[in-house]
From TrEMBL:
InterPro entries: AB_hydrolase_1, AB_hydrolase_fold, Carboxylesterase_BioH, Epox_hydrolase-like. This is Pimeloyl-ACP methyl ester carboxylesterase. The lineage of its organism: Bacteria, Bacillati, Actinomycetota, Actinomycetes, Pseudonocardiales. PANTHER family: HYDROLASE ALPHA/BETA FOLD FAMILY, PEROXISOMAL MEMBRANE PROTEIN LPX1. SUPFAM superfamilies: alpha/beta-Hydrolases. Residues 12-262 form the AB hydrolase-1 domain. One of its GO terms (molecular function) is catalytic activity.
Length: 271
């Protein structure tokens, strides 16, 4: 599994959204690495991480069994993260995730709550997919395998991935996210969609997590809107909620200064 790491101190592991990679956290990394050890993995099949040969923990298959890639799951993506923590000899980390990264973070919490010293959920939700969403994902996965992802994936996703203000006022952010989407391998895109399609509801997992938790949401997020964030914060016994104005689904890229200002006090308190 490929990951980017910098800084020293309390480890903060940040899991990226779909369909981008660990580089989405770079604007945050350069602002936090003076305070924390920031570790950002690429999810299986995306960025520079391999699709095959990663963890088979919790999926009943021997490690390296190629057939595991035929059974994509968010639990398997979480197992990859737990393997990385073992490899880095980190018994506990502050774990954060944006959107799909949040789904994976909740799956890590389900599998190994003792590894999570604090939880940062950004523009994500606890609910699984309904039938229509699941069908859409499987169609996107099939199309990615058939045609590759050039042009159409970014065209389809960009309007909703970024907030209205970013589309109107931050052309460099729009261009940067398009570049990240275009760089993703089609097989990884297909794998991630199939994995997300099968994910369970995580509400019970959140209800039983007694550690510190911060939920952040962009006010202009149309994929996982503020209502989803309120539900997350309400489910988490120690949940706090921050809503950021002028940003959408990827607030840490859209306005990293505002994002850091919002999360730094919480990070300082728990690290
Ligand atoms: C993401 O940003 O990771 C995706 O929008 C998540 C999803 O498709 O549910």
């Amino acid at each position: 599994m490929h990951y980017i790491e910098s800084g020293a101190g309390t480890p903060l592991v940040l899991l990226h959204a779909f369909p981008v990679d660990a580089r989405m956290w770079n604007p945050l990394r350069i602002r936090l690495e003076d305070q924390l050890r920031v570790i950002t993995p690429d999810q299986r099949g995306l960025g520079e991480s391999a699709l095959d040969g990663l963890s088979a923990r919790n999926v009943g298959a021997p490690s390296g069994d190629r057939s595991v890639t035929e059974r994509p799951s968010i639990d398997l993506a979480a197992a990859d993260i737990l393997d990385l923590l073992d490899q880095l000899e980190l018994p506990q980390v502050v774990l954060g995730g944006c959107s799909m990264g949040g789904y994976v973070a909740m799956a890590v919490l389900r599998a190994a709550p003792e590894r999570v010293a604090g939880l940062l959920l950004v523009d994500t939700k606890a609910a699984g997919d309904n039938d229509e969403q699941r069908t859409n994902r499987l169609n996107v996965a099939d199309r990615a395998e058939r045609e590759g992802t050039n042009d159409w994936l970014a065209e389809n996703m960009l309007p909703n991935l970024l907030g209205r203000t970013s589309h109107e006022q931050r052309p460099e952010v729009v261009a940067g996210v398009r570049e990240l989407i275009d760089a993703q391998p089609a097989v990884g895109v297909a794998w991630a969609q199939r994995a997300m399609a099968g994910r369970p509801d995580s509400t019970e997992t959140l209800l039983s997590y007694l550690g510190p938790a911060l939920v952040v949401v962009g006010e202009e997020d149309t994929i996982t809107p503020p209502e989803n964030a309120r539900e997350l914060a309400a489910a988490l016994p120690e949940g706090e909620l921050v809503t950021l104005a002028g940003v959408g689904h990827l607030p840490s890229i859209e306005d990293p200064d505002m994002f850091v200002e919002a999360v730094r006090p919480w990070l300082s308190r728990i690290s």
